[in-house]
Amino acid sequence: MVIGITCYPVAGGSGIVATELGQQLALRGHQVHFIAYALPFRLDRYQANVMYHGVETTAYPLFKYPPYTLTLAARMAEVVRSYDLDLLHVHYAIPHAACAYLARQLLAADGAPCPKVITTLHGTDITLVGSDPSYYDITRFSILSSDGITAVSKYLADETSQVFRVDKEIRVIHNFVDNHRFRPTEKQCERTEFVAHDEFLIAHVSNFRPVKRTLDVIDVFERISAELPAKLLLIGEGPDTILARRQINKKHLSDRVMFLGNQNRIEAVLPCADLFLLPSEEESFGLAALEALACGVPVIGTSGTGLVEVVDDFKNGFLLPIGDTAAMARAGISLLRDKGRLAEFKAQASRSALEKFGADRIVGQYEQYYREVLGG
Questions:
Q1: Are residues 210 and 77 in the same domain?
Q2: Same domain (yes/no): 32, 48
Q3: How many domains, in total, are found in the chain?
Q4: What local confidence, expressed as pLDDT, does residue 114 receive?
Q5: What's the rounded Cα separation, in Å, for the pair 295 and 289?
Q6: Which residues fall within 8 angstroms of residue 263, CB to CB, at 6 or more apart?
Q7: For 26-35, 38-47, 137-146, which range has the lowest pLDDT when averaged over its residues?
Q8: In the chain, how long is the greatest CA-to-CA distance?
Q9: Do 201 and 349 fall within a single domain?
C-alpha cells in the first residue's frame, strides 16, 4: 500500500503514534509519506520506504494567521497525484480530517483518483478542542466525511459517539510500543546518573499542558520525598514548564528535581525509574504511561480516564481520583517501601504492556483496517 500520514509533528501522543505507525508500516514493505509542517518528532533517522513532504505557509501581511489548513490540503492533493496514494491517514480530527476532505475535493475537480481517508481520534481533538462550540460542527462533519474512523481507546470511541452523535463504526485500535525498543533491559542510562544507591527515581513525561496537571506531579513528589529519599525526573516541555519551575523553587525542591526537556529516545531513560506519575485531568489512552509500563515502571494515574485500559489497578500501578494527590502519594510510598511488591509490579508492568500493546500486534490491526476500508 502507498499511505499518506498527516499528524502534528511536535512531542505528544498523537504525533508519536502516527510517526511510529508509519515507521512500522514501512518495515512491513508499505510506502509511507508523511505530510506535515515540520519533520515529525520521532522521525529522526533515515528509513527505507519513508518520505517526508513539508507544508509551507505564506506570511502575507493581509493574513493575521497564515492559512496552514489551505496549504496543507493543497500539499496533500499534490502528494496524492505525484505518488498515487491509496489512502490518507490523518491523526487528530482538527484540522487534519477537514484538510483531507478538501484535498479530495481538489482531486475530484480535476477528475483525478481520490484516496480513501481514515481519521484517527486521539483525545483532546474530541474532549477539548472538538467539543468547543466554535469547532463542533466542522469536527463532526470531518469525522462523518471520513471513510474510516479509529480511536485509541474504547473510552474515547464512546465519548465521540455520544458527544458528536456519530452512528458510524469507530474502530478501537489501541496505541502501541515498539517491542524491541521499550524493554526494561534496553536502558542506556545508569541510575547513578540521577540518584544515589539508596534513593528512588520518580519520573513524569508529558507536553506540560494544563490538562497534564504538572503541579499535581510536584505535589505528589513532595509528599513522597518527605517520607522516602527520592528524586523527580521531568521529561518534556510545554506551556506549564515555567509554572512547574516556579512551584519547585517555591517548595525548595530544586536540588531534588531534574528537567531533561524533550527527549526522542525516552526508552533509554525510563528503565532507570522506580515509579511514573501521570495525574492528568484527561487521558484518552495515555501513551506515556504505556511506554513507562513497557520499560518496567509502575504507573500512578487518574481513574475515570482512558488510563483504565492501560494500567491494571493494583497489579502494575494505581488509578486514583483526579486531584487526590494525598492518595497518590500514599499509594506510591506504600509500593516503594515494599521491595518485593515493587519488583512484582515492575515485572507485571513490562509483561502486560508488551503482550497487550506491542507493535507486532497493533500494527497488524491497522493493516487489516486499511484493507477493509480500501475494499469498500
A1: no
A2: yes
A3: 2
A4: 95
A5: 10
A6: 235, 236, 269
A7: 38-47
A8: 69
A9: yes
CA neighbor of 231 nearest in space, from 269, 274, 267: 274
Statement to judge: residues 328 and 264 lie in one domain: yes
pLDDT at 131: 59
Q: Which domain holds residue 227?
A: 184-357
- Do 91 and 150 share a domain, yes or no? yes
Map residue 46 onto helix, strand or coil: coil
Residue 134: count other Cβ atoms within 10 Å of its Cβ: 7
Q: Which three cell numbers stand for residue 269?
A: 531513560
- The percent of residues above 90 in pLDDT, for the chain, comes to 80
Confidence band for 43, pLDDT divided at 50, 70 and 90: confident
Task: Tell me: pLDDT of 187 over 70.
Answer: no
User: How far is Cα 47 from Cα 258, in angstroms, rounded to an integer?
Assistant: 33
Q: Are residues 164 and 200 in the same domain?
A: no
- Read off the C-alpha cell for 114: 481520490
CATH of the domain at 195: 3.40.50.2000
- C-alpha cell at position 367: 493493516
- Residue 23, classed as helix, strand or coil, is helix
The three cell numbers locating residue 329: 502519594
Do 41 and 9 form a contact (C-beta atoms < 8 A)?
A: yes
Contact 205, 291 (CB under 8 A): yes
- Alpha carbon 239 to chain centroid distance? 17
The stretch 169-198 carries a mean pLDDT of: 88
In angstroms, the CA 264 to CA 149 distance is 28
Helix axes 339-357, 359-374, angle to 10 degrees: 30
H/E segment holding residue 20? helix 13-27
pLDDT confidence of 322, banded at 50, 70, 90? very high
Please check whether residues 368 and 328 belong to one and the same domain: no
My answer on whether 193 and 290 are in the same domain is yes
